[in-house]
Amino acid sequence: MLIDRPDGTYCFRFHRERVYYVSELIMKRAANISRENLISFGSCFGKFTKTMKFRLHVTALDFLAPYAKFKVWVKPGSEQSFLYGNHVLKSGLGRITENTAKYQGVIVYSMSDIPLGFGVASKSTQECRHTDPISIVVFHQADIGEYLRNEETLT
């Protein structure tokens, strides 16, 4: 799949159970290296598990965040908790996109519109309005704190 951008043509490539978003120029140069010696190239969007389910990596966040249909904003006091891998509680919820369905994938933002990670809404927008402050409203999936926590595995 080729994607035209102002800075060149980009595509998705599969290598060692991972999907990479890479410029066509780098892809052509990587073709000169044998598959056994090639560790990674481009930006890793995610990987396939042993059961062949696709898991997004946090490295795809900057590419996907501008196009997100469903978003959740967390209060400044809950940002650090989310970045340590915890779920978002109702007490930490700043805003949520209208008509977000239960179990819908969401992008988690800070109140200053900085994308922090991915999650899954555990409650719909309507349920969030009437739930108690200690209930979970977004299940944590990935966050930018993983750049430090999982530095050696984010290739």
Descriptive report:
The chain has helices at residues 24-30, 61-64, 76-83, 125-129, 146-149; strands at 2-5, 8-15, 18-23, 43-48, 54-56, 71-74, 88-89, 93-96, 105-110, 115-121, 136-143. It is an alpha+beta fold and 155 residues long. The chain has two domains: 2-56, Nuclear Transport Factor 2, Chain: A; 62-149, PUA domain (Archaeosine Trna-guanine Transglycosylase, Chain: A, domain 4, Roll). Strands 7-11-10-9-6-8 form a six-stranded mixed sheet. The protein has a five-stranded antiparallel sheet with strand order 1-2-3-4-5. A hairpin with a 5-residue loop joins strand 4 and strand 5 (54-56). The longest helix is centred in the middle third of the chain and has 8 residues, at 76-83. The two termini are 21 Å apart. 23% of the residues are buried.
